[in-house]
Write a structure and sequence with these properties.
By secondary structure, the protein is α/β, with parallel strands linked by helices. 43% of the residues lie in helices and 17% in strands. The protein is built from 7 helices and 7 strands, in the order βαβαβαβαββαααβ. The protein has a 7-stranded mixed β-sheet, with helices on both faces. α1 packs across α5, α2 runs antiparallel to α5 and α3 packs across α4. The protein starts with a strand and ends in a 14-residue tail after the last strand. The model has no long low-confidence stretch (mean pLDDT 96).
Length: 234
């Protein structure tokens, strides 16, 4: 049994990027922690940020409860996440509290600043969290662990090196995605994107690539001390 920490930028990123994989992890007995560094408060054209922050927290909790995941927050608002020491230290604290066996986060070349900042902060903080004399609010250290990058928005410039067959979990993945009702409408109005259809088509496409009905694709962070002979993804 592993402890899995998914650190993403916004509520609903988890369901899009790795929801089926996390459900599969939960199914094999893993502890699953889903962390959102940003509140999602900018994700609407009509609902004001303070109200939307509350709405999206509720949507994330509903989805997390459905999956049996622990949901935690980084405490930043949308478009206010940068590669600063304060931000890195908060992520260090998250990693030390959870002490995961592996981490899933955004790809370094994803489409917007909150995603790319999250990716870099996770990379830096996962190392810093292992250093005994790097002091933050949380005492102790975490172990050095593998990092897996979930695919970019719509898979642009992303070539998976690992696949997870999520076919048995696809319906629940979509149910969890539908919990984010504020975003289903916002993405349709703002970007002309059918959120649920996009999630479904992306998983279907990755499934074609690996001989499954539905799949999610990942690349592993290939740096010294983060590689292992173990298979972590389910």
């Amino acid at each position: 049994m592993y402890t899995v920490l998914a650190i993403l930028a916004h509520p609903d990123d988890m369901e899009i990027a790795c929801g089926g994989t996390l459900l599969k992890c939960k199914g094999r007995g893993d502890r699953v922690v889903s962390c959102y560094l940003c509140s999602g408060n900018m994700g609407h054209v009509v609902v004001m940020p303070d109200e939307l922050r509350r709405i999206r927290a509720g949507e994330a909790k509903k989805s997390g409860d459905m999956g049996g995941f622990e949901v935690i927050w980084g405490g930043f608002d949308d478009l206010d996440l940068y590669e600063t020491k304060e931000a890195r230290d908060r992520v260090v604290d998250i990693v030390r509290r959870v002490n995961p066996d592996f981490i899933i986060t955004h790809a370094p070349n994803d489409y917007m600043s909150d995603h790319t900042a999250t990716s870099k902060l996770v990379f830096d903080a996962a190392f810093s969290a292992t250093c005994p004399h790097y002091e933050t609010e949380v005492e102790g250290t975490a172990k050095m662990v593998p990092i897996f990058y979930a695919e970019t928005s719509n898979g642009i410039d992303f070539n998976p090196t690992e696949y997870v067959d999520v076919t048995p979990f696809m319906e629940k993945k979509l149910e969890m995605a539908r919990c984010h009702a504020s975003q289903v409408q916002w993405l349709l109005d703002h970007d002309g994107v059918d959120f649920i259809e996009q999630v479904c088509i992306s998983s279907k496409y990755r499934g074609y690539q690996c001989g499954a009905t539905y799949a999610e694709g990942f690349t592993q962070c290939r740096t010294d001390m983060r590689l292992s002979t173990k298979r972590y993804l389910p």
